[in-house]
Amino acid sequence: MNPIRLAFLLFVAMPLARLFTGADVVDRQRLPAKGPAIIAANHNSHVDTLLLLTIFPLAALGRLRPVAAADYFLKGPMIGWFSRRIIGIVPIVRGGPAAGTNEDVLAPAREALARGDIIIIFPEGTRGDASDAMGRLKAGVARLAEAFPQAPVIPVWLEGAGRVLPKGTLVPVPMNCTVLVGEPLAWCGERTAFIDRLRAALLDLKAKAPPQHWIEDEDPKAA
Amino acid sequence: MTSPITLPLPAAWHVPPAAPAVIWGLGVVLAILSLGALAAALLPVVRPGKDYTNLRQRVNSWWVMIALLATALLLGWQATTALFAVISFIALREFLSLAPSRREDRLIILAAYLVIPINYAFVALDQYGVYLVFIPVYCFMVAPFLMACVGQTQAYLARAATLHWGLVTCVYSLGFAAFLMKTPLTERLPAGPAGMVFLLLFVTELNDVAQYVWGKLFGRRKITPKVSPNKTWEGFLGGWATTAAVIWFLGPYLAPLAGWGRFWMAFALPLAGFAGDVTMSAVKRDIGVKDTSALIPGHGGMLDRADSLTFTAPLYFHLLAFFALERF
């Protein structure tokens, strides 16, 4: 593993995650120590990636590959170097005709899984508005699960990260976050059904999360 | 009395010599903890079939907490003030993350954290008079004003009160423990400032543990059925008597306790510990959580561990200030 990346994760990312989120993890033992595996999490903030990069066992750090939008994370040489070498992203080209076919878009992620990496994917496709309402889940995660049926898909709910650094803000505010790790899902043979099961698993975890969200986002049905 | 013990540190950093009573006290704490560790190691062998993970985690976490607190106390007021500032930050972060708040409160919450370095700066600068009024009077006024400036008036009173509640318990109250370390050495203290803070921490935690043990052994009648159904009259009274006896008999070796001061400390401090515990339980029940975080394995969050201390620290300080200390 790139020593600069290891040093960054251990001495920058971990202390920052601790300071700004408390980094509580529920059912940490469900996180895989080796790949191929797919972590599927909800997405509200860049803090999500920071948190997910810092809660795995040391042995897995070199294997962690967040799937990230090429248009955002590779837009300049500096951020591109940082994204590739330090965060270790798997770039993915989002939407539009230039994106080509779906199969091509996922090629780097499939290569990573074939190498035995643990990929981190946010199936909502982009950061939400931190209202903790989950967006529509895109089918990419199901395609990957189909291509690698031996790779477990682990649903992860991140509660509170959208408050630390919401989309569009620059100043992070320390607030406790909780990472809830779900039971691994196995490929069930059908994409839509798989996405439905993933969504249900994520909502299940959300229901168990401590109320680390804004009060106006409280689900009136849950109350 | 034996000669004071000093730690090997650069000459530039003045470390006050630790009083023998503090060393003895720490020795007793380590002995108790070793017994706990022994129990956690032996119980699965002697009485298998039960899950002792929580007991083991609790004991392991105690080692860490005691190591941190003991090191800070032995290093002096600088390290103790810094440690309590960190404790306040973690406690306040837990509280503000769980208490109901709205999007508009985000920057107010950031401002609330800034209160911590200012509050503890008054400790470091020995500004007792300013410390007393900074949070209860001035933050009390400024925070709601800032919230009004943001222009959101929904649940305004409740949110302003929540913020103030968090600042007073997590920052102002806990800060008194650090301020005790600034007691001048000219005062007649049996074991120096560190002895006073050690006694505060020891009897506060002892009270928690004694209540739990008495309750486990003899608990029958629920004392707060709606807030903390596990608490019993037997646990409360047993813990009160145990802690009062320890303060009465051992307290004078560690803190300037004599006459009525000794009596009121033994009488009232266990009550304050119980009150802090129950009050924080009510807050957690209102929010709908069991623990304030998972920071300390086996214990829960910082606020779960420090709930009693948020009530005992100011009372302990004020009883000493009233009966013994000339500085405060």
> What ranges of chain A have pLDDT less than 50 throughout 5 or more consecutive residues?
none
> What strand order characterises the main sheet of chain A?
1-7-6-2-5-3-4
Share in helix of chain B: over 70%
- The name CATH uses for the topology of chain A is Glycerol-3-phosphate (1)-acyltransferase
Kindly provide the name of the CATH class of chain A: Alpha Beta
CATH architectural designation of chain A: 3-Layer(aba) Sandwich
Q: Extract low-pLDDT stretches of chain B.
A: none
Helix percent band of chain A: 25-40%
Structure, explained:
The complex is a heterodimer of chains A (223) and B (328). Chain A is an alpha/beta fold. Chain A has a single domain (3-217), classed as Glycerol-3-phosphate (1)-acyltransferase. Helix content of chain A is 38%, strand content 14%. A 7-stranded mixed beta sheet of chain A has the order 1-7-6-2-5-3-4, with helices on both faces. Chain A is globular, with a radius of gyration of 16 Å. With 328 residues, chain B is mostly helical. Chain B has 2 domains: 77-182; 191-328, no CATH class. Helices cover 72% and strands 2% of the residues of chain B. Chain B has 11 helices and 2 strands, in the order αααααααββαααα. Chain B has helices at 20-46, 53-75, 77-98, 106-124, 128-150, 156-180, 192-218, 233-254, 259-287, 302-306, 309-323; strands at residues 222-224, 228-232. The model of chain B has no long low-confidence stretch (mean pLDDT 92).
